[in-house]
């Protein structure tokens, strides 16, 4: 029981941290499909957790774009083909 409550408290703490940080929240909403884009402040500036404006390096921004494209491509590759085609491939792998 104590372990379960500890896990729940940790999970709640992580959720609070995620949702209280504007950047993390935008990324989380994007990953859930609640937002079609990740909105960035221009020019490459963000507000950190302490509500201070900080500059985000261009390479960091580009790295994030590359990662988002990679995730999108993986998601698209997994969804290609019909349900039956995916099941046939899955069955061939298990045989």
Could you give a short description of this structure?
67% of the residues lie in helices and 6% in strands.
**Which sequence of SSEs, written as H and E, runs from N to C?**
HHEEHH
Structural class: mainly alpha
Continuous helix count: 4
Terminal residue distance: 41 Å
Count of spatially separate domains: 1
Q: Biggest sheet, in brief?
A: 2 strands, antiparallel
Number of beta strands: 2
Low-confidence stretches: none
Large-scale geometry: flat
Q: Percent helix among the residues?
A: 55-70%
Strand content: 5-15%
Mean pLDDT: 73
Roughly how many Å is the radius of gyration?
19 Å
Spatial strand order of the main sheet: 1-2
Can you tell me about this structure?
InterPro entries: DnaJ_C/III_chloroplastic (IPR053232). Residues 74-95 are annotated as: Disordered. Residues 85-95 have a biased composition (Basic residues). This is J domain-containing protein. This protein is mainly alpha-helical. It has one domain (2-94). The protein has helices at 2-20, 22-32, 58-79, 83-94; strands spanning 45-47, 53-55. It has a two-stranded antiparallel ribbon with strand order 1-2. Strand 1 (45-47) and strand 2 form a beta hairpin. Helix 1 crosses helix 2 (22-32). The longest helix has 22 residues, at 58-79. The N and C termini lie far apart (41 Å). 0% of the residues are buried.
